[in-house]
Amino acid sequence: MTKSLAFEVRPRSWSIETGHDRDGGLAAGLQIGSMRILLNDIESMALESVTERDCKGLAVIGALFGSGAVLFILLITVFDWRTRFLIGTTFLGALALASFVEAWTANRISLHRLHIRLRSGETAIFASADAAEIADLTSALQTRLPPAVGANGRVTPDRAAA
Fold it and tell me: Residue 150, SS3?
């Protein structure tokens, strides 16, 4: 990544826009990507944080390399393959060990989701790795939504949306 990209302000992936409806009034809406949600249709909001370690793929690759190393050992000892294939065993064993070490030291990945329940029963989910972006969206929605959404305009936990 270049330095110019690292220091530029990233644009928001959401916006709150106003448009004209049929009656000539303004119908405010939340634009998330290509999806537009009318603010009048929002029934409730719920926050969710997900933290996970992405180590399954590395563990599977390590197991495959380890299986290849064991297969080479069996072929050399049982079927009298040439001993030069021990180099392959060492190489595959080292790759397996490196994969398992990488899986063991994998960092946690945090993802934040905002579940927006609509009056029609549908749920729109906005997800971001940036907690500040989710906080900006919830505060922007809380200032524009009627007080009936959430207790005192706050985000309420919604068990059905989570």
Answer: coil
Place of tokens 């079927």: 79
State phi, psi for 16 to the nearest 5 degrees: -110, 115
pLDDT, residue 21, reads: 59
Residue 20 backbone dihedrals phi, psi, to 5 degrees: -95, 130
**29, two tokens:** 């809406």
pLDDT digits (tens, 9 = 90+) for 3-37: 555 566 777 888 887 766 556 555 678 888 888 88
Tell how strand 123-128 and strand 14-20 pair up: unpaired
Query: What single string gives the DSSP state of each residue in 90-144?
Result: HHHHHHHHHHHHHHHTPPEEEEEEEEEEETTS-EEEEEES-HHHHHHHHHHHHHH
Order of strands, sheet of 108-118, starting from the edge strand that comes earlier in the sequence: 42-53, 108-118, 123-128
The token pair at 15 is 């916006």
Containing H/E element for 36?
strand 35-38
pLDDT at 26: 55
- Determine how many CB atoms are found less than 10 A away from the CB of residue 70: 14
